[in-house]
């Protein structure tokens, strides 16, 4: 069932979205060579508790995975792209880190992710990150009232293919609002003009993710961490977006994104 949100409810989601965007930007500044992933996890736990928010990940126990997630961040390094389980790992020069988080405040959820390079970047990694960011912005631009969900999917796929990357369709975007995962599913490739109508009040997480040289994935023994099947680098970008009568409203913009438009080829997707 798809629940269309009122303008007031979208405003409440935007409060959560602002916190998520600010915390992701903060975490991208904390991440550096020599920082342990668990330091990032505990930093996020403190900030979430201080805000009176609730992590959507802590008790998350879907059909995949191995029991409740019991962390507040997905931290995916290099060839890991989704659901990276925080663990005792010290970031090294050149690591590509993806941070994904979803929290609820006063019953309303927002979800967002970014990828960036810690230390010295490899140009190929910057291109991969850029592709996910450009695909995300194209998808947001396609999320127009009266359009179709396939317009969003087609926009992501078109950008990915223009950069020379293939698209995996096993995991993609999703509806959200009162909970982290609601209908509809938002595929990362598809056909424009197809699928459900984009009516004002629809709130979705749009999240293009790509592997450098494959569209196949594998799962670690921890039951959570999803990696590229061939060990190639990966990247992930995500925003929570509301469809409104005036057009798409991004609820999880980070401060750097609000201050200036994105520039391709930079070190990180947020503040560095």
Automatic annotation (TrEMBL):
Reaction equations catalysed: Release of N-terminal amino acids, preferentially methionine, from peptides and arylamides
Keywords: Aminopeptidase, Hydrolase, Metal-binding, Protease
Cofactor: binding details: Binds 2 divalent metal cations per subunit. Has a high-affinity and a low affinity metal-binding site. The true nature of the physiological cofactor is under debate. The enzyme is active with cobalt, zinc, manganese or divalent iron ions. Most likely, methionine aminopeptidases function as mononuclear Fe(2+)-metalloproteases under physiological conditions, and the catalytically relevant metal-binding site has been assigned to the histidine-containing high-affinity site.
BP-aspect Gene Ontology terms: proteolysis
Cofactor: Co(2+); Zn(2+); Mn(2+); Fe(2+)
EC number: 3.4.11.18
Residues engaged in binding a divalent metal cation 1: 100, 111, 238
Residues the record lists as binding substrate: 83, 181
All copies of domain Peptidase M24, residue ranges: 13-245
Record GO cellular component, one term: cytosol
Region (Disordered): 246-272
Residues that, per the record, bind a divalent metal cation 2: 111, 174, 207, 238
Gene3D superfamilies referenced in this protein's UniProt entry, alphabetically: Creatinase/methionine aminopeptidase superfamily
InterPro entries (UniProt xref): Creatinase/aminopeptidase-like (IPR036005), Pept_M24 (IPR000994), Pept_M24_MAP (IPR001714), Pept_M24A_MAP1 (IPR002467)
Gene Ontology terms for molecular function: initiator methionyl aminopeptidase activity; metal ion binding; metalloaminopeptidase activity
Pfam families reported in the protein's UniProt record: Peptidase_M24 (PF00557)
Domain of life: Bacteria
Function: Removes the N-terminal methionine from nascent proteins. The N-terminal methionine is often cleaved when the second residue in the primary sequence is small and uncharged (Met-Ala-, Cys, Gly, Pro, Ser, Thr, or Val). Requires deformylation of the N(alpha)-formylated initiator methionine before it can be hydrolyzed.
Quaternary state and interactors: Monomer.
Family: Belongs to the peptidase M24A family. Methionine aminopeptidase type 1 subfamily.
Protein name: Methionine aminopeptidase
Species: Micromonospora auratinigra
Upper classification of the organism: Bacteria, Bacillati, Actinomycetota, Actinomycetes, Micromonosporales
Gene name, Swiss-Prot/TrEMBL: map
């Amino acid at each position: 069932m798809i629940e269309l949100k009122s303008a007031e409810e979208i405003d409440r989601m935007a409060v959560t979205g602002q916190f998520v965007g600010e915390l992701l930007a903060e975490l991208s500044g904390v991440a550096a060579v020599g920082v342990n992933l668990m330091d990032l996890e505990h930093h996020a736990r403190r900030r979430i508790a201080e805000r009176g928010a609730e992590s959507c990940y802590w008790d998350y126990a879907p059909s995949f995975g191995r029991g409740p997630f019991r962390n507040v961040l997905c931290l995916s390094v290099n060839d890991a792209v989704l659901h990276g389980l925080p663990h005792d790992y010290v970031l090294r020069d050149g690591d590509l880190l993806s941070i994904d988080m979803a929290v609820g405040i006063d019953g309303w959820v927002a979800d967002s992710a970014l990828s960036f390079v810690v230390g010295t970047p490899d140009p190929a990694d910057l291109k991969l990150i850029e592709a996910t960011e450009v695909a995300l912005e194209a998808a947001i631009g396609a999320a127009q009232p009266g359009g179709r969900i396939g317009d969003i999917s087609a926009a992501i796929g078109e950008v990915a293919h223009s950069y020379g990357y293939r698209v995996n369709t096993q995991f993609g975007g999703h509806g959200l609002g009162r909970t982290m995962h609601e209908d509809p599913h938002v595929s990362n490739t598809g056909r424009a003009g197809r699928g459900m109508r984009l009516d004002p009040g629809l709130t979705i997480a749009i999240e293009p993710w790509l592997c450098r040289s494959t569209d196949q994935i594998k799962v670690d023994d921890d039951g959570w961490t999803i990696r590229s099947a061939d060990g190639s680098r990966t990247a992930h970008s995500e925003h929570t977006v509301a469809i409104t009568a005036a057009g798409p409203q991004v609820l999880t913009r980070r401060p750097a994104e609000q201050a200036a438009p994105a520039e391709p080829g930079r070190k990180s997707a947020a503040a560095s």
